[in-house]
Protein backbone atom coordinates (compact mmCIF):
# COMPACT_ATOMS: atom_id res chain seq x y z
CA UNK A 1 0.00 0.00 0.00
CA UNK A 2 1.75 3.13 -1.23
CA UNK A 3 1.43 6.39 0.66
CA UNK A 4 2.61 9.94 0.09
CA UNK A 5 4.51 11.78 2.81
CA UNK A 6 3.74 15.52 2.70
CA UNK A 7 6.40 17.93 3.93
CA UNK A 8 6.19 21.61 4.75
CA UNK A 9 8.62 23.97 3.00
CA UNK A 10 11.02 23.66 5.96
CA UNK A 11 10.97 19.86 5.45
CA UNK A 12 8.98 19.21 8.62
CA UNK A 13 6.39 16.45 8.27
CA UNK A 14 2.82 17.62 7.85
CA UNK A 15 0.94 14.41 7.12
CA UNK A 16 0.83 11.10 5.34
CA UNK A 17 -1.78 10.59 2.60
CA UNK A 18 -3.01 7.76 0.44
CA UNK A 19 -1.37 7.55 -2.99
CA UNK A 20 -4.73 8.50 -4.55
CA UNK A 21 -4.86 11.80 -2.65
CA UNK A 22 -1.15 12.34 -3.29
CA UNK A 23 -1.46 11.96 -7.07
CA UNK A 24 -4.55 14.18 -7.09
CA UNK A 25 -2.66 16.97 -5.29
CA UNK A 26 0.32 16.48 -7.63
CA UNK A 27 -1.81 16.74 -10.76
CA UNK A 28 -3.57 19.84 -9.36
CA UNK A 29 -0.17 21.41 -8.76
CA UNK A 30 -0.65 21.78 -5.00
CA UNK A 31 2.46 19.77 -4.11
CA UNK A 32 5.94 19.39 -5.57
CA UNK A 33 6.98 15.72 -5.80
CA UNK A 34 10.45 14.98 -4.42
CA UNK A 35 10.57 11.20 -4.69
CA UNK A 36 8.40 8.64 -6.48
CA UNK A 37 7.32 5.03 -5.90
CA UNK A 38 8.43 2.53 -8.55
CA UNK A 39 4.82 1.80 -9.47
CA UNK A 40 3.02 3.93 -12.06
CA UNK A 41 -0.69 4.10 -12.73
CA UNK A 42 -2.53 4.37 -16.01
CA UNK A 43 -4.69 7.47 -16.27
CA UNK A 44 -7.98 7.76 -18.15
CA UNK A 45 -6.17 9.58 -20.97
CA UNK A 46 -3.83 6.62 -21.56
CA UNK A 47 -0.78 8.19 -19.88
CA UNK A 48 1.19 6.59 -17.08
CA UNK A 49 1.68 8.68 -13.95
CA UNK A 50 4.30 8.10 -11.24
CA UNK A 51 3.03 7.87 -7.69
CA UNK A 52 4.56 10.50 -5.40
CA UNK A 53 6.30 8.97 -2.39
CA UNK A 54 7.51 12.23 -0.79
CA UNK A 55 6.23 15.67 -1.74
CA UNK A 56 6.43 19.25 -0.48
CA UNK A 57 3.68 21.85 -0.33
CA UNK A 58 4.15 24.95 -2.50
CA UNK A 59 3.31 27.41 0.28
CA UNK A 60 4.57 27.28 3.85
CA UNK A 61 1.84 26.16 6.25
CA UNK A 62 2.13 27.91 9.60
CA UNK A 63 0.37 26.20 12.44
CA UNK A 64 0.67 26.17 16.18
CA UNK A 65 0.06 23.12 18.25
CA UNK A 66 -1.22 23.31 21.78
CA UNK A 67 -0.94 20.13 23.78
CA UNK A 68 -3.99 19.27 25.85
CA UNK A 69 -4.03 18.67 29.60
CA UNK A 70 -3.69 14.88 29.54
CA UNK A 71 -2.58 12.88 32.57
CA UNK A 72 0.89 12.46 31.10
CA UNK A 73 1.20 16.16 30.27
CA UNK A 74 0.16 17.25 33.77
CA UNK A 75 2.74 14.87 35.28
CA UNK A 76 5.41 16.29 32.96
CA UNK A 77 4.46 19.88 33.77
CA UNK A 78 4.56 19.21 37.52
CA UNK A 79 7.78 17.15 37.20
CA UNK A 80 6.12 14.07 38.78
CA UNK A 81 5.88 15.95 42.09
CA UNK A 82 2.91 16.19 44.45
CA UNK A 83 1.80 19.81 44.38
CA UNK A 84 0.65 19.68 48.02
CA UNK A 85 3.49 17.98 49.94
CA UNK A 86 6.33 17.97 47.40
CA UNK A 87 6.96 14.22 47.34
CA UNK A 88 8.42 13.01 44.06
CA UNK A 89 7.23 9.45 43.47
CA UNK A 90 5.82 8.70 39.99
CA UNK A 91 4.32 5.39 41.16
CA UNK A 92 2.16 6.97 43.87
CA UNK A 93 0.81 10.00 41.98
CA UNK A 94 -2.76 10.73 41.03
CA UNK A 95 -4.39 13.55 39.13
CA UNK A 96 -6.26 16.05 41.31
CA UNK A 97 -8.85 18.66 40.38
CA UNK A 98 -8.04 21.83 42.35
CA UNK A 99 -11.71 22.81 42.12
CA UNK A 100 -13.60 19.50 42.32
CA UNK A 101 -15.69 18.42 39.35
CA UNK A 102 -18.85 18.38 41.46
CA UNK A 103 -18.28 22.10 42.16
CA UNK A 104 -17.97 22.83 38.46
CA UNK A 105 -14.22 22.22 38.08
CA UNK A 106 -13.14 21.43 34.54
CA UNK A 107 -10.35 19.30 33.03
CA UNK A 108 -8.11 22.27 32.25
CA UNK A 109 -4.42 23.06 32.71
CA UNK A 110 -5.31 25.54 35.45
CA UNK A 111 -7.46 23.05 37.41
CA UNK A 112 -5.38 19.85 37.28
CA UNK A 113 -2.31 19.07 39.38
CA UNK A 114 -0.26 16.05 40.45
CA UNK A 115 -1.04 14.84 43.95
CA UNK A 116 0.14 11.84 45.91
CA UNK A 117 -2.56 9.42 46.98
CA UNK A 118 -2.31 10.55 50.62
CA UNK A 119 -2.80 14.27 49.81
CA UNK A 120 -5.53 13.58 47.27
CA UNK A 121 -7.44 11.51 49.86
CA UNK A 122 -6.95 14.17 52.54
CA UNK A 123 -8.24 16.90 50.22
CA UNK A 124 -11.20 14.77 49.11
CA UNK A 125 -13.92 16.58 47.18
CA UNK A 126 -12.97 19.98 48.54
CA UNK A 127 -10.92 22.92 47.32
CA UNK A 128 -7.44 23.35 48.85
CA UNK A 129 -8.75 26.25 50.97
CA UNK A 130 -11.63 24.16 52.31
CA UNK A 131 -9.20 21.32 53.11
CA UNK A 132 -6.73 23.76 54.72
CA UNK A 133 -4.02 22.80 52.21
CA UNK A 134 -1.82 24.98 50.03
CA UNK A 135 -0.49 24.38 46.54
CA UNK A 136 3.30 24.53 46.13
CA UNK A 137 2.89 25.93 42.59
CA UNK A 138 -0.13 27.59 41.04
CA UNK A 139 -1.18 25.43 38.07
CA UNK A 140 -0.82 27.16 34.70
CA UNK A 141 -1.28 26.27 31.10
CA UNK A 142 1.43 24.06 29.68
CA UNK A 143 1.82 23.70 25.96
CA UNK A 144 4.77 23.75 23.68
CA UNK A 145 6.48 20.80 22.11
CA UNK A 146 7.82 19.36 25.36
CA UNK A 147 4.39 17.89 26.01
CA UNK A 148 2.79 14.95 24.26
CA UNK A 149 -0.22 15.03 21.96
Task: Draw up the topology in text.
Elements (H helix, E strand, L loop, with lengths): L2 E5 L5 E6 H10 L2 E12 L5 E10 L13 H7 L15 E5 L14 E5 H7 L26
Give your account of this protein's structure.
With 149 residues, this protein is an alpha+beta fold. It has 2 domains: 3-57, no CATH class; 71-123, Orthogonal Bundle (DNA Binding (I), subunit A), CATH 1.10.30. 16% of the residues lie in helices and 29% in strands. It is built from 3 helices and 6 strands. The protein has helices at 19-28, 71-77, 117-123; strands spanning 3-7, 13-18, 31-42, 48-57, 93-97, 112-116. Strands 2-1-4-3 form a 4-stranded mixed β-sheet, with helices on one face. A two-stranded antiparallel sheet has the order 5-6. β1 and β2 (13-18) form a beta hairpin. The radius of gyration is 25 Å and the shape is rod-shaped.
Summarize the structure.
By secondary structure, the protein is of the alpha+beta class. The chain is 16% helix and 29% strand.
Which strands sit side by side, in order, in the main sheet? 2-1-4-3
- What global shape is seen? rod-shaped
Q: Work out the helicity level.
A: 10-25%
Q: How many strands, which pairing sense, and closed or not: the largest β-sheet?
A: 4 strands, mixed
Element order: H for helix, E for strand: EEHEEHEEH
| Unreliable segments of 5+ consecutive residues | none
Instruction: Kindly estimate the percentage of residues that lie in beta strands according to DSSP.
Output: 25-35%
The helix-and-strand class reads alpha+beta
Per DSSP E runs of 2 or more residues, the count of β-strands stands at 6
Radius of gyration: 25 Å
Number of domains: 2
* Helix count from the secondary structure assignment: 3
Can you give the mean pLDDT? 90
* Ends distance: 27 Å
